[in-house]
Amino acid sequence: MGSQVRSVPRPLVRANQWFIVISVLLTWITKQEWILAIPLIAGLMSLFFKFNPVMRLAKLFLRKHPSQYISEEWDQQQFNQTISVICLAGGLISFLMNWDIWGYVFTILVASAAFIAILGFCVGCFIRYHWKQYRYRRSLRKY
C-alpha cells in the first residue's frame, strides 16, 4: 500500500499566482497598500485552515473534474504559500510603516516569484529542493 500524495489542480495554483501578481500591481498603481491584505489573508487561511478562498472561487470555473488536470503537490504549495505570506506581510507592514523601499523589495520578490511560476519555473520548488538536499547531506554527516 503506497501513500497517496495530496495535490492541487494546476489551474487553481495559477489562479492564486495571478491573484498575487495582480494584487501587487494594483497596490503599486493605486498606492493603496491595504490591497496586499487580501492575498495575505487568503494565504494565511490556506496555511492555518487549509482553505484558500481564491482557489475555492477558481474551482467553480473548472470545466473538467479536478483530477483531470495536471496537479501540483500540496506540500510544495504550502511551502510556496509560506514564502508568499512572509513576503506579502513584509510588504504590507513595510508600506504601512512608510518603509517604501522594503515594501517594494518584498512585493517585487513575491510578484516576481509568482509570475516566474506562471511562466513555468517554480522558485519555491527550487528553494525547497535545495533545502531538502542540504538537510539530507547534513544528516549523512552525523553518522
Distance between the termini: 30 Å
Classify the secondary structure makeup into a structural class: mainly alpha
- Oligomerization state: single chain
Strand elements, count: 2
The profile of the biggest β sheet is: 2 strands, antiparallel
| Number of domain units | 1
What's the gyration radius in Å?
A: 17 Å
Q: What is the 3D form?
A: globular
- The helix content, as a percent range, equals over 70%
Strand content: under 5%
> Whole-number average pLDDT?
95
Instruction: State the low-pLDDT regions, or none.
Output: none
Please provide the ordered H/E string of secondary-structure elements.
EHHHEHHH
Major sheet strand order: 1-2
Number of helices: 6
What's the helix and strand layout?
Blueprint: E1 7-9, H1 10-30, H2 37-49, H3 53-59, E2 71-73, H4 74-96, H5 100-119, H6 123-141
Antiparallel strand pairs: 1-2
Helix pairs in contact: 1-3, 1-5, 2-4, 4-5, 4-6
Please name the defining characteristics of this protein.
143 residues, 2 strands
Question: Overview of this structure, please?
Answer:
This protein has 6 helices and 2 strands. It is mostly helical and 143 residues long. It has one domain (7-141). Strands 1-2 form a two-stranded antiparallel sheet. Helix 4 (74-96) crosses helix 6. It is globular. The two termini are 30 Å apart. The relative contact order is 0.15. The model has no long low-confidence stretch (mean pLDDT 95).
